[in-house]
Please model this.
Amino acid sequence: MYNKIIMNIFSNPKNSGRISKPDGIADLYNAEQTAHVEFSLRIESGIIMQCKFRAQANPYITAVCSKITEMVTGRMANMLYIDSMSVKKALEDESDIDIEFCLDCLKGAVRDYQEKLEKSSR
Model:
């Protein structure tokens, strides 16, 4: 059902866990896929220095989250663009599973960071 890349990442996910005192954090639950995902970020000078995830989900969603953390580390938080097709391409998988909620969770963590930044500058 899952390809070798997905099963390898699922067995050895990168960046799993939670950042202590994150600059941005968000979590989402997808009832349709019975998946719960959380992203936490450490951001310095607008650059995502560290991104971690926690997921209670199937191997595909776990692999997606792990791959997302790798794809966004080192990128500017306010110019972050990542889409489901680029993630699927990186996983060499074209499954019909909707992963937009994983990306929405990541965007929520960035939004949390931006809101905290705005509050601290007032």
Q: What stands out?
A: Helices lie at 4-11, 59-72, 84-90, 100-120. The chain has four helices and three strands. The radius of gyration is 14 Å.
